[in-house]
Write a structure and sequence with these properties.
23 helices, 2 domains, 580 residues, 6-stranded mixed β-sheet, Rossmann fold, alpha/beta, ABC transporter transmembrane region fold, 65% helix, 3-stranded antiparallel β-sheet
Length: 580
Amino acid sequence: MKHSHAVRTMLKALGAMAPRRLWLGGMAMACLTVLMGMALLGLSGWFIVATAIAGLVPASALVFDVFMPSAGIRLLALGRTGSRYAERLLTHDATLAVLAALRERLFRSWAPAGAAWQLRMRPARWLQRLTSDVDALDSLYLRLLVPLAAACGAALLAAVVLAGMRWWLGLLLGAWLLLAGLGLAAWLARAARRPATRRAVALEALRAQAVDLVAGQTDLLMAGRLSAQCERLAATERRVAQADRQLNRLEARASMGFGMAGALTLAGVLLAVAALAEQGRIGAPGAALALLVALAAMEPFAALRRGAAEAGRTLLAIKRLAPQMQSADAASSVIAQPPAAGVALSLQAAATCPYGSQRVVLGPVSLEVRQGERVAVVGRSGAGKSTLLLLLAGELPALQGQVAAEPVTWLTQRTELFQDSVRGNLLLAQPQASDGALWQALEDAGLAADVRAMPQGLDTVLGEGGLGLSGGQARRLALARLLLHPAPCWLLDEPTEGLDAATAADVLQRLRQQMQTQTHGRTVVIATHLRREAALADRVLWLEQGQQVLDAPRGSVEFARVLAQLRADVGDAADAAQPA
């Protein structure tokens, strides 16, 4: 995406996330604060000089009005304080509101199919998008647009004040301020773009390498690569430090440049007003007013220095996030296709392939699952069972054919728990659930007694990945979350894999009971290679190398033959003999 298009896309998106009154109000308050400060400084200088001159002559001292200038100074001082407070309030309110809305849109952009795969493959990259890249966008408004508006307002006021003395003097001062101030800011932004970009990229690599080092230190140690990873991390840190040094040097040069520009501005105005005073066209108070206004006019341009130094990082963040913003808009417009009446899931000559692969591994498959029906998908490892569930769950797009499905909830092979309380892990399924509903789900999953025995019950905090629970307890907690979800259709991927026979039998018995809770029963599609799990089904679907080779109902010879070929564990024969 080109820079200009990315910037327009991001500005348009950011502008829609906060009321216009906040954007414009913050910039207006920033301009007002700068103008009041300049007016306060200029009026104070004029008043001091005029009072000193008036005091030299008793007659002048008697008629000199000290009340109006004093009142004006107090008004400007109080007004500047109030406008500064209002500016900070409006600008930060707008910025924080926009960044919060931006993070929400980014989360939504990762909701479509394939997002979970991308997050799992490169978690550090997407964490960088949500943190550093989003935070970099506050410079766009707070450190670029707001200071730019204030600086232009200062140049305009300085030009008007000096134009009141001589029009050409005001014109020259305004042109010089814009040329010098904006020119220095543009130079700094251009010079700092490359080191700022290098710093942002190196910081992202540093974060990813640190995560790899901490998470994979055991594997690295066993492979003899721990020291190499540490050296790689140190080299990346040196790149960050080098980019920091380059940015600091550029900022120092820019600061020196703004100081020299301010000194030249003051010297030029001093010579001009001195000539005018010598000619008798202005008095000493007017000369003091002009000098102090010119002195204050360059200060707002110096405020652009930090924003210009971070412009490269901000532009990089815009380039990274702008496509995600468009993805969020596209994702929000996608409407899932509902199946026909009485049908829960439907595939019509559907085919798909995993993300990152160009080879079709499933399909074409045609399948229709009625509401309340239970289907077991079986086959050898790599036959496409989990891929079929990914397709039904919407995590993989159909390359051809059509997919229609009711709302589904999915119990994956890997138990996905988070570093949160037991309550927080359950509320992911139904955020508005009451404590009574949570305890009922735990009771149905056979975990209520274990949770009651915990020190804080539902508020007990689990470690990362559910650390603190045994494998069976973690699976039961995932089962409780499944039971809590209101979706009428369940997708189960090896639900009892890795559990001992007693725990597996109990989990399957509870699943069998909960499948009958609705009027027509739960619709279930279960991918398995275990006999005890396939025995729950009304139909069995056999996959071979991604192709559908058999679809047999319960009671048929084919169903019994497929069931007999599946792997048996202790107690499976008794389970299979029970009616489903």
